[in-house]
C-alpha cells in the first residue's frame, strides 16, 4: 500500500500498512517517553501508549511499548542497582507479579473500548493520592512497610499497570517518594522496580500469546529512539538539583493524570 514502510527483515514487514508519518510520530513518542524514564526511573509507558494508541490501536500500542520498555531496561536497570532500596523492592515484587498475572488475564479478555473506564478510575486514585498527601498521612497512622499495606499497594500497581499499558509505577510514586526521600534513591528504586515489572509483564504477555515476529521487528526498529531518549533523560537527572527533580516529578505525575483523564473520557 502507498505510504507503507519499504523495509523487510527476513521476510517480516514491520509496521505493515502504517503510513510513514505515523511511524515517525511513533518513534518520536518513544523518544519522549524514554527521556522521562531516563530522568525519573519510570513513566515512559503511559505517555507512549496515549500518543500511539491513536496511530496503532490500543492493544498494538500497549504490547509494542512493553517490548521497547524491556529493551530500554537492559540499558537503564544497571543504573539503579547500587542505590536502590532492595528491601522495599523485595517487599513489593511478589504482589506486583500477582497483580500482573491478574491484569494480563483481564487485558486479554477486554475489548479496546473497555480499557477506558479502568484508566479513568486509576487517574482518580492518582490525583487524590498526590493532592492530599495520602501516603504521608497514612505513614503517621501505620507502618508503611507492614505486609498488608505493601501487599495491597503492590497488587494494585501490578494490575492497573498491566491492564492500562502504563501507570503501575505512577500509582506507587507517592509511596516510593515517601520511602525514598532523596532523588537518587527514588530514581534508583524506581528503575529497579520498573525493570522487574517489565520482566513480569513480558513473561505473562508472552504466555498469553500476544507477541509475534512483526512486533519484535517493530520494537527493534524503534530501538535508536528508545536508547537516545533514555540517554538524554539520564543526562537531565545528573544535571538537575533535588528541588528541580521533585518539581519535575510533580509535573510529570500531573501530566500523567491529565493523560489518563483524557483516555478515560475519550476512550
Describe the structure.
The protein is built from twelve helices and no strands. It is globular. Helices cover 80% and strands 0% of the residues. Helix 3 crosses helix 9 and helix 4 runs parallel beside helix 9. The N terminus is likely disordered. It has 267 residues and is an all-alpha fold. The protein has one domain.
Overall average pLDDT: 78
The dominant shape is globular
State the end-to-end distance. 28 Å
Q: How many domains comprise the coordinates? A: 1
Parts with pLDDT < 50 across at least 5 consecutive residues: 1-5
Largest sheet: none
CA-based gyration radius: 18 Å
Sheet/helix structural class: mainly alpha
Order of helix and strand elements from N to C terminus: HHHHHHHHHHHH
Q: Considering DSSP H and I runs of 4 or more, what fraction of the residues is helical?
A: over 70%
Strand content: under 5%
Strand runs, count: 0
Individual helix count: 12
Amino acid at each position: 500500500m502507498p505510504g507503507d514502510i519499504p523495509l523487510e527483515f527476513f521476510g517480516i514487514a514491520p509496521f505493515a500498512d502504517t503510513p510513514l508519518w505515523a511511524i515517525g510520530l511513533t518513534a518520536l513518542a518513544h523518544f519522549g517517553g524514554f527521556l522521562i524514564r531516563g530522568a525519573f526511573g519510570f513513566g515512559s509507558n503511559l505517555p507512549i501508549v496515549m500518543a500511539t494508541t491513536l496511530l496503532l490501536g490500543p492493544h498494538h500500542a500497549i504490547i509494542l511499548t512493553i517490548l521497547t520498555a524491556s529493551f530500554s531496561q537492559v540499558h537503564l536497570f544497571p543504573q539503579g542497582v547500587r542505590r536502590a532500596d532492595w528491601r522495599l523492592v523485595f517487599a513489593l515484587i511478589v504482589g506486583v507479579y500477582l497483580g500482573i498475572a491478574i491484569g494480563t488475564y483481564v487485558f486479554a479478555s477486554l475489548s479496546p473500548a473497555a480499557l477506558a473506564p479502568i484508566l479513568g478510575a486509576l487517574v482518580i486514585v492518582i490525583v487524590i493520592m498526590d493532592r492530599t498527601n495520602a501516603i504521608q498521612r497514612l505513614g503517621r497512622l501505620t507502618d508503611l512497610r507492614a505486609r498488608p499495606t505493601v501487599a495491597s499497594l503492590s497488587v494494585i500497581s501490578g494490575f492497573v499497570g498491566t491492564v492500562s499499558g502504563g501507570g503501575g509505577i505512577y500509582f506507587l510514586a507517592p509511596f516510593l517518594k515517601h520511602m525514598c526521600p532523596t532523588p537518587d534513591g527514588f530514581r534508583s528504586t524506581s528503575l529497579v522496580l520498573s525493570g522487574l515489572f517489565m520482566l513480569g509483564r513480558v513473561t505473562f504477555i508472552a504466555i498469553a500469546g500476544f507477541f509475534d515476529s512483526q512486533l519484535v521487528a517493530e520494537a527493534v526498529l524503534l530501538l535508536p529512539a528508545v536508547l537516545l531518549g533514555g540517554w538524554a533523560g539520564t543526562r537531565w537527572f545528573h544535571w538537575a538539583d533535588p528541588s528541580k527533580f521533585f518539581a519535575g516529578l510533580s509535573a510529570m505525575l500531573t501530566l500523567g493524570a491529565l493523560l489518563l483523564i483524557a483516555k478515560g473520557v475519550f476512550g
